[in-house]
């Protein structure tokens, strides 16, 4: 790296079965900020910056809600660092982080993109009302240079 932040886009399909379940609830709400987007088929896209230390810091956020808000997936203050995608901990104090998914790099991503497989992190199962066990496979995470 040359010591400068680099613009990029994070793409994550979240978990296909979770998104389908939330859609079937009939009251799916999607809140996007900071240029982020959501598509039921593609998942979330969030603008980010890759910092000189390699950390990817999200500039936008996506919050998915269903069942009158009883199920909420807040991808807020996200970052990718040390093979983990973490978010602001919705149950913690200000500044606390929650490891959402553990990441394993997929080799050979090509120029300008980085891909990881993702699995639910050890302490993130409460966020999904214990419907997914730790290490359950989630969708791949891709970071593309903007």
Characterization of the model:
This protein is mainly β and 146 residues long. The chain contains one helix and twelve strands, in the order E-H-E-E-E-E-E-E-E-E-E-E-E. Strands 1-4-5-8-9-10-11-12 form an eight-stranded antiparallel beta barrel. It has a three-stranded antiparallel β-sheet with strand order 2-6-7, with no helix packed on it. Strand 8 (79-81) and strand 9 (84-88) form a beta hairpin. The radius of gyration is 15 Å and the shape is globular. The two termini are 16 Å apart.
Mean of pLDDT: 93
Q: Helix coverage percent of residues?
A: under 10%
Give the neighbour order of strands across the main sheet: 1-4-5-8-9-10-11-12
What pattern of helices and strands is seen along the backbone?
EHEEEEEEEEEEE
User: Major beta sheet, specifics?
Assistant: 8 strands, antiparallel, barrel
Q: Termini separation (Å)?
A: 16 Å
**Classification by helices and strands:** mainly beta
Q: What sort of overall outline do the alpha carbons produce when their principal axes are compared? A: globular
Number of helices: 1
* Counted beta strands: 12
Radius of gyration, whole Å: 15 Å
> Which residue ranges are poorly predicted, with pLDDT under 50 across at least 5 consecutive positions?
none
Summarize the structure.
By secondary structure, this protein is mainly β.
Helices and strands, with pairings:
Elements: E1 6-12, H1 16-24, E2 29-33, E3 37-39, E4 43-50, E5 56-58, E6 61-66, E7 71-75, E8 79-81, E9 84-88, E10 97-106, E11 113-120, E12 137-145
């Amino acid at each position: 790296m040359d010591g400068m932040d680099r613009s990029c886009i994070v793409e994550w399909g979240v978990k296909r079965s979770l998104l389908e379940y939330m859609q079937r609830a009939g009251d799916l709400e999607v809140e996007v900020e900071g240029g982020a987007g959501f598509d039921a088929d593609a998942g979330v896209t969030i603008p980010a910056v890759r910092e000189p230390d390699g950390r990817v810091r999200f500039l936008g956020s996506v919050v998915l809600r269903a069942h009158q808000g009883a199920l909420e997936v807040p991808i807020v203050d996200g970052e990718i660092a040390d093979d983990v995608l973490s978010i602001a901990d919705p149950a913690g104090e200000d500044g606390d982080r929650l490891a959402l998914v553990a990441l394993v790099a997929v080799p050979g991503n090509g120029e300008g993109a980085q891909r990881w497989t993702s699995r639910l992190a050890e302490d993130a199962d409460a966020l999904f009302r214990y419907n997914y066990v730790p290490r359950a496979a989630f969708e791949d995470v891709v970071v593309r240079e903007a």
